[in-house]
Design brief:
heterodimer; A: 331 residues; 2 strands; 71% helix; globular; B: 285 residues; alpha/beta; Rossmann fold; 6-stranded mixed sheet; 4-stranded antiparallel sheet; 31% helix
Chain lengths: 331, 285
């Protein structure tokens, strides 16, 4: 019911960010380079081989992370409970780091092993956090966040030990990747991310009615005929696939999954049939814009995009924690 | 079935009720036990609820009343024993099928619900939607009718979190009704409500029961307005059934009631209605 023009507006913003981002950067791109996708000129390569795939990757990663955050916020009925704050991203990063450290190289049906390792890490972490909260009997906000924080610490120290044992070159790569970044060249990155984010996004798009129900509490959802157990299984797999796919390529980019859906809830309301497309569009636009910012703010030095999102996300987290705006937006 | 699944629900029963599966029974519970860890919450509870009957479940705190109700809606693990709902084995029917027969009104509590009343009501149509489908005109119609019947239309567009406890509880009943069930389970529907809203919610449920032929199972601490006003009473104590019968039978044997609550009661005849009212006696040892 609320503000019907909001979704079309978000679509326009998303499109503008996606199309505009490749034009933002240190060097100016002339129109001739834009019109020559396969050209060998430096401008053409910068535009088509670096900036365009990067914008697409950022958009995919932002969309995927944001809708996963939305799903977790609905499931746990808490805007602070997202894959990043509950340690799922750390779990995915840990999985991918183990893969790199062990020097494993394999692909499964064309899917790189690092992404699969990240997916497994993410899924294990979700099951662990969920198991911990269940063992303590129900999800009180504090139990849930504490379990997530504890697990994050644990996984971070595991990651540190992996880094420490790696050689200097690998170690630097790991550190840089862990900051969350999109500094890659060519279309391998977006093509690696796409199947993961695509799977997760389609799965969540089919679950909007169920997300609404679960947001009213498990008992009501069950009494309305939702098979909560099976729904959670589906949700956990969809979120693990998405977060794993994104983290393996871009590193654990934080807070997008918390800020974007919460802001969208204020814009379009809590009904997931509208909240889902809004979050998808705004998540993509948001991370694409953050990435453009990270490339230009102190150019020629690039700030990893994860640092930008964390700089915005930290205060946002505190604001939510201290009960900034409740009411309709607060779950 | 009619628009709200009322009235004609009895006609679904075959002429020879009681042949196989006894379709005239709303619930058949046999040897129901519930464990949580090593604690036995319910032990070997057996009873039937006839279709169209209203049953009140009473008992002291911790007797397992809410657990019993929630196990009928398959909300808790660790349940053993046989439960049949309208002749169908609970184990064999899906959650969606169950929700088309039975709906549930939770205890009045302060959970935040970010939705408007109408949004919340429309979600109750979920068990009637096929997977991934949208709401139909009929879904909207059923919801509007349910709101009309329960008197919540006036605040249809308000946010659930802005309603008073009583208004909110009426919306929960309305939503349960929009589910078009044949039976409704209520978990202490009037606790925390002021007297006016207690009366309103109870009268609403009573009307749906009487006029609509809805089977009602409610957990209650309210003996006079809740338990003694219904068709039958089931009393639990420490997870076991200690009484199952009509309110009349309960009142005929004062030792039953005092045994349930470890409290002596006075039996008073209401000066206007002539109904018997019970009141705990103060100052007991």
């Amino acid at each position: 019911m609320k503000r019907r023009w909001m979704l079309p507006l978000l679509a326009v913003i998303a499109l503008a960010c996606l199309l505009g981002a490749p034009f933002v950067g240190m060097s100016h791109v002339p129109m001739s380079a834009v019109l020559d996708p396969f050209g060998m000129s430096a401008e053409s390569v910068v535009f088509w081989r670096i900036r365009v795939p990067r914008a697409i990757t950022a958009f995919l990663a932002g969309s995927g992370l944001a809708v996963c955050g939305m799903a977790f916020q609905a499931l746990f009925r808490n805007p602070l409970a997202t894959p990043y704050t509950l340690g799922v991203s750390s779990g995915a990063a840990f999985g991918a780091a183990v893969y790199v450290r062990l020097g494993l190289v394999f692909t499964l049906l064309g899917i790189p092993g690092s992404s699969i390792a990240a997916f497994v890490g993410a899924l294990m972490t979700i099951l662990l956090v969920y198991g911990l909260t269940k063992a303590r009997g129900g999800f009180s906000t504090s139990t849930l966040l504490l379990a997530g924080v504890a697990l994050s610490f644990f996984l971070s120290s595991m990651l540190l030990s992996i880094q420490y044992s790696a050689n200097l070159h690998d170690s630097f790569r790991l550190v840089r990747w862990l900051m969350g970044g999109l500094g890659m060249v060519g279309y391998d990155a977006p093509l690696n991310v796409l199947p993961f984010v695509g799977t997760g996004v389609v799965a969540l798009a089919l679950l909007t009615n169920e997300l609404n129900l679960i947001n009213t509490g498990e008992d009501i959802a069950m009494s309305r005929g939702l098979n909560v157990h099976r729904f959670k299984q589906g949700l956990f797999v969809a979120v693990s696939v998405t977060v794993g796919g994104v983290v393996a390529v871009c590193g654990p980019i934080g807070f997008v999954d918390m800020m974007v859906p919460h802001i969208c809830r204020m814009l379009v309301g809590p009904d997931h049939r509208r909240l889902f497309p809004a979050t998808l569009l705004f998540g993509g636009a948001f991370l694409t814009a953050c990435d453009a910012l990270s490339r230009t703010v102190i150019a020629p030095v690039e700030i990893p995009v994860g640092i930008i999102t964390a700089l915005l996300g930290g205060p946002f987290f505190l604001w939510l924690l201290l009960g900034g705006r409740r009411g309709r937006a607060g779950i | 079935m009619s628009a709200l699944g009322m009235k004609d629900s009895r006609q679904d029963a075959p002429a020879f009720a009681g042949v196989t599966g006894a379709p005239s029974k709303a619930f058949q519970i046999e040897g129901l036990s519930v464990k949580a860890g090593s604690a036995k919450i319910l032990q070997d509870v057996t009873f039937d609820v006839a279709e169209g009957e209203s049953l009140a479940i009473i008992g002291p705190n911790g007797a397992g009343k809410t657990t019993l109700l929630r196990s009928l809606m398959r909300m808790i693990p660790g349940v053993t024993g046989g439960i049949r709902v309208f002749g169908q084995s609970l184990a064999a029917c899906s959650q969606r099928e169950l929700a088309r027969m039975v709906s549930y009104v939770p205890q009045a509590e302060g959970r935040t619900l970010p939705f408007t009343v109408r949004e919340f009501m429309l979600m109750a149509r979920y068990p009637h939607m096929s997977p991934f489908s949208h709401l139909t005109a009929r879904d909207h119609e059923v919801v509007e009718q349910a709101m009309e019947r329960t008197g919540v239309t006036a605040f249809a567009d308000r946010n659930m979190d802005t309603l008073s406890g009583g208004e909110r509880q009426k919306v929960f009943v309305a939503a349960a009704l929009a589910q078009e069930p044949r039976a409704i389970l209520l978990d202490e529907p009037t606790t925390f409500l002021d007297y006016r809203h207690q009366v309103e919610v109870l009268e609403l449920v009573e009307r749906l029961h009487r006029e609509g032929g809805l089977t009602v199972v409610s957990v209650t601490h309210d003996l006079n307005q809740g338990a003694l006003a219904g068709d039958r009473v089931l009393a639990l104590r420490q997870g076991r059934t200690i009484f199952h019968g009509t309110p009349k039978e309960l009142l005929a044997h004062p030792e039953i009631l005092s045994g349930i609550y470890d409290t002596e009661f006075d039996y008073i005849t209401h000066p206007h209605t002539g109904a018997i009212i019970v009141a705990p006696i103060k100052g007991q040892p």
